[in-house]
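Saturday, quiet lab. Running sequence design on the structure tokens for the scaffold JK sent over.
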């Protein structure tokens, strides 16, 4: 995904030009946006093509497979582009590698790609302007992969450009769980939660700017425990209750959750907060107790079943999504079948599945009984066939139903808008532009592989008249 929106206020010819390419998770998308806002304060306007840029930032992801290799090959391409540009225009181009690959590679990156100007980890983006200035003066280090005391959130400005109708808000970062396959605890560092007041203030600003849906982000979002304005530690459920009180904020979501942190108050929030959407990404990774233990996940398959039951009791229409890994070291055919059985028993609306990729420095990479690549791949294909069939079946259950859709953007055809169902499905509808940023009832008429189509229902009377109608009863009560 590229961050190529130019901000009309800042995109003047005299300004320096910035291109950011973002890989990986939504947290990186959020970070890139804030980094662009910071660099805008330092005179950079965002451009859509790397070839036009004075500064190119790769915001990288290290979670799976040959991530570093992909970054090195992209850097090779950028180096050629930079040389061509210098030959043609005489203008230089600075290259910055940011994010989790930068964190993991550190000095090795400058050894292998000495033409890179700066390597900056995910916790020190806010220092990039200073690093660039020092690089220009040739008086300082080119690597910053610290885990500093100061918080980048306090030092990075809000995002650039228009607020999307569905916006992300990072509430928590890092991870202390140390699943044995995962690099996150090493690249993003220890778990930390932002203070609740800062999150609420940012949420209000986003809603003021036009957001109607917020997705709270965190590597372990439901482990959130931020300082509350009342001097207590707030849980994610407490935070969601507070955010639900913001006027005009129609929808709340959060991702990614860990089954271990699915506390009773959070499950209950799914039953009591109408703004909280009935769709939850709750990665299980495997259905085998032995594998879950080797992964250090801290729960067994029965714990997961119990959680799903509790969620469905609290919110009967909740739909679930998950992540799976096939071929973790030691996984036997029997273990894999336990995963298939779990999938069949739970029924997922959507899922992401990956074959195990040994990440350097993680305990999993050093475990005996690594599973052969071919077996990992073959199990992945079997699992994906099942998960795809479940996703299709889930989409088909929405056919003929009338669902609230939040319209987020114009469609490809004139007169068409695209919105999202409560279950995050894209829904294409013929609808007037005034409905952008609003919720409307839509009856689902068609079901495609990656989206739905629907027909707009006559809209309920405006909220104001509903309130008037409700008043007498309120007085009686
Ligand atoms: N190999 C394969 N998949 C992985 N994931 C994380 N690390 C690895 C790895 N080493 C997957 C997990 C996680 C998702 C974000 O990526 O399923 O939930
Ligand atoms: Fe990685 Fe496990 Fe932490 Fe998720 S909980 S970020 S998979 S270590």
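Result came back. Writing it out in full:
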């Amino acid at each position: 995904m590229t961050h190529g929106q130019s901000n009309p206020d800042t995109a003047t010819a005299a300004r320096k030009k910035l291109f950011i390419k973002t890989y990986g998770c939504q947290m990186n998308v959020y970070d890139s946006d804030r980094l662009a806002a910071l660099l805008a304060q330092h005179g950079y306007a965002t451009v859509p093509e790397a070839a036009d840029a004075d500064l190119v930032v790769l915001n990288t992801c290290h979670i799976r497979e040959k991530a570093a290799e992909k970054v090195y090959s992209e850097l090779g391409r950028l180096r050629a582009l930079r040389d061509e540009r210098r030959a043609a225009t005489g203008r230089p181009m600075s290259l910055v590698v940011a994010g989790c690959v930068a964190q993991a590679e550190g000095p090795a990156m400058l050894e292998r790609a000495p033409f890179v100007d700066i390597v900056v980890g995910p916790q020190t983006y806010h220092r990039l302007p200073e690093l660039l200035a020092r690089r220009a003066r040739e008086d300082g280090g080119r690597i910053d992969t610290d885990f500093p005391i100061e918080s980048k959130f306090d030092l990075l400005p809000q995002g650039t450009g228009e607020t999307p109708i569905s916006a992300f808000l990072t509430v928590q970062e890092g991870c202390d769980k140390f699943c044995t396959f995962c690099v996150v605890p090493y690249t993003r560092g220890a778990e930390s939660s932002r203070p609740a007041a800062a999150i609420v203030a940012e949420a209000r600003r986003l809603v003021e700017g036009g957001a109607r849906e917020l997705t709270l982000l965190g590597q372990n979002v439901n482990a959130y425990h931020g300082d509350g304005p009342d001097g207590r530690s707030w849980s994610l459920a407490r935070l969601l209750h507070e955010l639900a009180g913001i006027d005009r904020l129609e929808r709340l979501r959060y991702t990614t959750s860990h089954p271990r942190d699915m506390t009773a108050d959070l499950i209950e929030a799914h039953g009591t907060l109408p703004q909280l959407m009935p769709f939850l990404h709750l990665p299980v990774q495997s259905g085998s107790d032995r594998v879950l233990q080797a992964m250090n996940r801290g729960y067994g398959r029965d714990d997961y079943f119990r959680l799903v039951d509790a969620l469905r009791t609290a919110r009967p229409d909740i739909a679930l999504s998950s992540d799976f890994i096939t071929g973790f070291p030691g996984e036997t055919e029997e273990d894999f079948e336990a995963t298939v059985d779990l999938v069949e028993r739970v029924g997922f609306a959507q899922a992401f599945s990956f074959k195990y990729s040994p990440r350097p420095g993680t305990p999993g990479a050093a475990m005996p009984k690594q599973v052969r690549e071919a077996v990992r791949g073959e199990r992945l294909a079997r699992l994906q066939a099942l998960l795809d069939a479940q996703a299709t079946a889930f989409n088909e259950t929405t056919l003929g139903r009338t669902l609230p859709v939040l319209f987020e953007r114009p469609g490809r055809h004139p007169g068409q808008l695209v919105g999202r169902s409560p279950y995050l499905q894209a829904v294409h509808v013929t609808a007037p532009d005034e409905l952008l940023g609003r919720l409307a009832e839509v009856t689902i008429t068609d079901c495609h592989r990656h989206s739905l189509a629907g027909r707009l229902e006559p809209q309920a009377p405006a909220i104001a008249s509903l309130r008037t109608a409700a008043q007498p009863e309120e007085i009686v009560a």
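Notes for JK: Residues 175, 177-179, 182, 184-185, 219-220, 258 surround iron/sulfur cluster (ligand 2) (CB under 6 Å). The CA atoms of residues 171 and 452 lie 31 Å apart. Ask whether to fix the surface positions before the next round.
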